[in-house]
From TrEMBL:
Its EC number is 2.1.1.386. Belongs to the methyltransferase superfamily. HEN1 family. Keywords: Magnesium, Metal-binding, Methyltransferase, RNA-binding, RNA-mediated gene silencing, S-adenosyl-L-methionine, Transferase. The keyword Metal-binding applies. It comes from Streptoalloteichus hindustanus. GO terms for biological process: regulatory ncRNA-mediated gene silencing; RNA methylation. PANTHER family: HEN1, SMALL RNA 2'-O-METHYLTRANSFERASE. Its cofactor is Mg(2+). The lineage of its organism: Bacteria, Bacillati, Actinomycetota, Actinomycetes, Pseudonocardiales. This is Small RNA 2'-O-methyltransferase.
Length: 485
């Protein structure tokens, strides 16, 4: 694993003072699973580069984990990418080797600690579940210019396509301590594979490392969930702590992560690299994919996302050119502001910006702005509506807006017993007014279809339990007499 940090600050060799590592000699440090080396490939008044090289020994790492993984993963413990790719182990080494710099301590040049300096960070082999777009989504809001390209599986065989590894360069002006803290947090987030035990201590580490920037980051929920290995109780605690730093009510920050975190909640077992390689998409990702599939099948081009929240589905819709007009509607102005920031509407090219609008509106009131669209999506929305208001929602959607296709997803309450971290009788989200069984959802869909002239198909989303069904149920309503593509 290799990471380099360069500066053209004058004198550039001040980088050695900030890192507490002298440019004239290389140093060696014992770290988890291997040895870290610090060296300076270049060190002049004009430019200085510090390199952190982590030499991981997979055999030694596997010996330390004996008995913790199933037998099927034994070979993967020894034959893997750990010696070469910038995984969470590099973040651990960075925290140990550059701990003083990360905490912003420099006795020799104390004034430099608070001084933004020009920096270039290069990570030639970065595993990333999310590709170059995720790297941009994470680092651009922090002020970095981002260059990220996928590394081909084999340059000699271009038809094989790209690997999951990226060659990444970040350039910008920042406090070195901030740059290191961002790398410390985001390296494991990008890899999405913690290589060590994730416990409550990790919450404090995350808040300490990200306290200066994470609470205002538009992707803070994703960052927090991935950093804490998708464990609901830890992610909720971290977001609440960050909310305190931000001065906002904790429930506003926590509410968006709780539901998704519940769906991918893991027990407290160690999270290893091999398990991450086998990881299936989260339920939220599967739900989004199922919605997009139905919209494509319906030939929808003009789509409304009712209760769009902070824009997760909107981002996927924008990525496909077949969706020519996209409208996000939400009752919460804060959610719309966050969606605009996440989607970077202010930076979007004009032709792209013309495809999307964000509207403040209610689910239960007829809105003439929404009439005549091809499709309308209610993704995990109806369960947030008080049951007496459901007829008003049906009238607003199926009666007034009356799109050709309506896609509705909602939790299957029968499946809740399969979530180990969900207390018996609790709903998946504290704001859920109800959660339906499969029969109750089917009855509602049949009633709405009969009243407003639609037909309905109900599909499972997520792993299907023979007894309890799937965790999410999806209904596709098609208006009778319509001619979808």
């Amino acid at each position: 694993m290799l990471l380099t940090v360069s500066t053209t600050h004058r004198p550039a060799t001040d980088l050695g003072h900030l890192l507490h590592k002298h440019p004239d000699r290389s140093q060696r440090f014992e770290v988890t699973g291997g040895v870290a080396h610090v060296m300076y490939p270049e060190a002049s008044e004009e430019r200085c580069t510090a390199a952190l090289l982590l030499d991981v020994d997979p055999v030694e790492l596997a010996r330390g984990r004996r008995g913790q993984g199933p037998e099927g993963f034994v070979l993967g413990q020894y034959v893997n990418d750990l010696p070469y790719a910038a995984s969470s182990l590099l973040a651990v080494a960075l925290g140990k080797v550059f701990g003083s710099a990360l905490r912003g301590r420099c006795g020799a040049r104390p004034e430099l600690v608070e001084t933004p300096i020009p920096l270039e960070i290069h990570i030639p082999a970065l595993p990333c579940r999310g590709g170059p777009e995720l790297v941009r989504n994470l680092f651009l809001p922090l002020g970095w210019s981002v260059w990220a390209i996928s590394v081909p599986l084999d340059p000699a065989f271009p038809d094989w396509g790209d690997s999951r590894y990226l060659d990444v360069r970040l350039t910008g002006s920042a406090r070195l301590a901030d740059a290191l803290s961002q790398l410390y947090v985001l390296l494991p987030v990008l890899d999405d594979a913690k290589h060590y035990w994730v416990s409550e201590d990790e919450v404090a580490k995350l808040v300490r490392a990200g306290g200066r920037w994470l609470n205002t980051h538009p992707e803070r929920e994703l960052i927090t969930s991935r950093y804490l290995a998708h464990q609901r109780r830890f992610a909720s605690a971290a977001l609440a702590r960050l909310a305190e730093l931000d001065g906002r009510p904790a429930e506003e920050v926590v509410e968006d992560v709780v539901e998704d975190a519940t769906e991918v909640a893991a027990d407290s077992a160690p999270v290893g690299h091999d398990a991450a390689d086998q990881r299936v998409p989260s339920l939220a990702e599967q739900r989004c994919a199922a919605i997009l599939s139905e919209l494509r099948s319906a030939g929808a081009a003009r789509v409304v996302d009712m209760g769009c929240g902070e824009g997760r589905l909107l981002r996927e819709l924008l990525a496909e050119r077949s969706f020519t007009e996209i409208v996000g509607v939400d009752v919460a102005p804060r959610a719309l502001r966050t969606a605009a920031a996440r989607l970077r509407l202010d930076q979007m090219a004009e032709r792209q910006r013309e495809r999307i609008r964000l509207l403040h509106g209610s689910l239960t009131y007829a809105d003439s702005r929404l009439a005549g669209f091809d499709a309308l999506v209610l993704a995990e929305v109806i369960e947030h509506v008080d049951p007496p208001r459901l007829p008003a929602l049906a009238q607003a959607v199926f009666g007034a807006a009356r799109p050709t296709t309506v896609v509705v997803t909602t939790p299957n309450v029968e499946y809740n017993v399969r979530w180990p971290s969900l207390p018996a009788g609790d709903t998946r989200h504290p704001d859920h007014r109800f959660e339906w069984s499969r029969t109750e959802f089917a009855d509602w869909a049949e009633t709405v279809s009969a009243e407003y002239g639609y037909t309905a198909r109900i599909l499972p989303v997520g792993p299907v339990d023979a007894e309890l069904g799937a965790p999410t149920q999806l209904a596709v309503f098609t208006r009778k007499g319509a001619n979808p593509a």
